[in-house]
Specification:
Low-confidence stretches: 244-284
Order of helices and strands: HHHHHHHHHHHHHHHEEH
Distance between the termini: 43 Å
Strand content: under 5%
Mean pLDDT: 79
Shape: globular
Largest sheet: 2 strands, antiparallel
Radius of gyration: 22 Å
Number of strands: 2
Helix content: 55-70%
Structural class: mainly alpha
């Protein structure tokens, strides 16, 4: 049987030649902006290119990100204040999100530790640090109430959630046990807060909040949507090429197949679909 004829659009894509140096610079920009100095240093050596930023300066953002990822919000806030004492005072939404995540971690500890005083400490923390935000915006009040509702979740549910987290098992059980509060105990919340902090720090340093590749992904999604609205001749599926053939299937179901870099420069597919969706969803 003869091979299927490629769509004219696909032939044009195949004939398009992209400069290797442009691709290398795009990758380097991502590693620097997202805060992966070790990977950036190794890539610079392998690609024989000179980074446009001092890699040692990225380490402060890395320390903050790592503190948030492991749930040590107090350390993260202290590091942020050392780096930029005015950042959290100026960005109350960001400060609140950090404090709320810190409350969630305190509540988590109170249910997974034998220390009976931790529940009281969590409540006191909420009263002293988060309650003053409640009158400022209705969303602050709502988010605080939802976080405090975690105190009524049974201890056995917390135990199961904690034991399943390292193994990366299905979140269906957590969803069942925590219901509408499941997102507060999901590791993706730490990643989201860490990303928001990273972008805020970059913005405060007069740098771009996002890596260039994220702008390109959004532009590509916008261009395809516009072309389809104008009934232009396009293939039924156009893959971003981020996850092989799997992406073509997933994109039809609202999944975008993105991956996030882990601390050691590898890739972590968990939470990636939602993360890329954040950058490719276009308001109608």
């Amino acid at each position: 049987m003869a091979a299927a004829t490629a769509h004219p659009f696909e032939r044009r894509v195949a004939e398009t030649h992209i400069s290797k140096s442009d691709v290398n610079n795009l990758i380097m920009d991502y590693l620097i902006t997202e805060g992966y100095p070790s990977a950036a240093e190794k890539f610079a050596a392998e690609a024989n290119i000179q980074p446009k930023a001092d890699l040692s300066c990225i380490q402060e953002r890395v320390q903050i990100r790592d503190s948030i990822h492991r749930g040590d919000l107090q350390a993260a806030i202290e590091l942020i204040n050392e780096l930029n004492p005015e950042l959290l005072d100026a960005d109350k939404k960001l400060h609140f999100s950090l404090l709320r995540l810190q409350l969630v971690e305190l509540i988590r500890q109170s249910f997974t530790s034998s220390d009976a005083t931790l529940v009281g400490r969590a409540i006191e923390f909420a009263q002293n640090n988060l309650a003053p935000y409640a009158p400022l915006e209705p969303q602050f009040k709502n988010d605080l109430e939802r976080a405090m509702a975690l105190l009524i979740v049974p201890k056995e549910s917390w135990t199961k959630a904690t034991s399943s987290a390292p193994s990366g098992s299905s979140t269906s059980q957590v969803q069942t046990d925590f219901g509408a509060l499941a997102e507060l105990v999901d590791p993706s919340l730490r990643r989201k807060v860490a990303k928001d902090v990273n972008e805020a720090i970059l913005n405060s340093q007069d740098q771009r909040r996002e890596a260039n590749i994220r702008y390109l992904v959004r532009a590509r999604a916008w261009a395809e949507q516009l072309a389809r609205e104008k009934k232009m001749d396009l293939p039924q599926h156009i893959s971003l090429g981020l996850d092989g053939d799997k992406h073509s299937k997933d994109s039809q179901n609202g999944h975008n197949g993105d991956t996030e870099m882990t601390e050691n420069g590898g890739e972590d597919a968990s939470g990636g679909d939602a993360e890329l969706a954040r950058y490719t969803n276009i308001p109608t």
